[in-house]
Amino acid sequence: MQYGVDDEFKGAGIKTQGLLTAKFEFIEDNMISHWGNFTGNLESKWFVGKEDKIQYDDINMHSDGYFNNAFVGTFTMNNPKVETKCQWGDYRIPNIDCRFDVGTADFNIARKYWKKGWKDVALKNKISNQNIIETKEAKIIKNWWE
Contact 70/107 with Cβ under 8 angstroms? Predict the structure, then answer.
């Protein structure tokens, strides 16, 4: 059992904890452009609290390196047929090259990846040792899906 940093949730009524592991396949609607399939493995941490309900395990979210809902797999676009490595997670990306995530306690992106769409994450996290200069345009951060 884990009760968070300095056992802060020890008396909170946590009855049990676990890890859901699943094979994951998500097939996008073939009516959209660039549709494809996500295939891989998903892991999600959970716990049962005093109300006997399964809950998302955020108990250690203040600990360095915490992550949850981790996916590792591939995205295969169907037209043209292109396969790409695909990983995501809450708070951290699992199995990622440490030259990409340069954060110590929190997720932060190395400067060389900013041009590939990651500058908004760096700005939101305000990486202090990267000398980010926030321009007027940079303050207008679009959602990644737009």
Answer: no
